[in-house]
Amino acid sequence: MNDEYYMQLAIEEAKKAEKIGEVPIGAIIVKNGEIIASAHNLRETEQRAIAHAEILAIDQACEAMGSWRLEDATLYVTLEPCAMCAGAIVLSRIKRVVFGASDPKGGCAGTLMNLLQESRFNHQTEVVGGVRQEECGRILSDFFRQLRIRKKQKDEKTGEHSK
């Protein structure tokens, strides 16, 4: 199994999120070649700010392992982790993060900043970006394009103007 394979599984998680109207981001955690967690965004569904795919997967993996330390694990996620998720990754001591699309507005694995490899923390994480980047990015851009279209159609029906 390789990074491309596991990223495909994360993409499948992202598609689950999309089907329920969530921002399509998926995450998989692998340890010793075994998938120990899989999750997708549930922020809108649960109305919880912390219900990001990475956080949910980390929580699930900790429960599965019976430990908050995920030292030999790899996290695969379709979008570069934000500051909150990067913090959880560092604190759970995940060894490696592989992400698909970069996030120019919130990426904390090298785009805006790199919290995962910040030397002042007691743990640093190996980072691999751009795995299946085009596909991961396309899922997100298609989702937001459809969201804008639906909003415009709704506004036209109700006579409101988008801001």
TrEMBL record:
At the top level of its lineage, which domain of life is listed? Bacteria
Tell me the PROSITE patterns matching this sequence: CYT_DCMP_DEAMINASES_1 (PS00903), CYT_DCMP_DEAMINASES_2 (PS51747)
Q: Which UniProt keywords apply?
A: Hydrolase, Metal-binding, tRNA processing, Zinc
Q: Does the keyword DNA-binding apply?
A: no
List, separated by semicolons, the cofactors it needs.
Zn(2+)
Report which reactions are catalysed by this protein. adenosine(34) in tRNA + H2O + H(+) = inosine(34) in tRNA + NH4(+)
Q: Where is the active site?
A: E54
- What family does this chain come from, according to its entry? Belongs to the cytidine and deoxycytidylate deaminase family. ADAT2 subfamily.
What is said about its interaction partners and assembly? Answer: Homodimer.
- Could you identify this protein by its name? tRNA-specific adenosine deaminase
Question: From which organism does this entry originate?
Answer: Anoxybacteroides rupiense
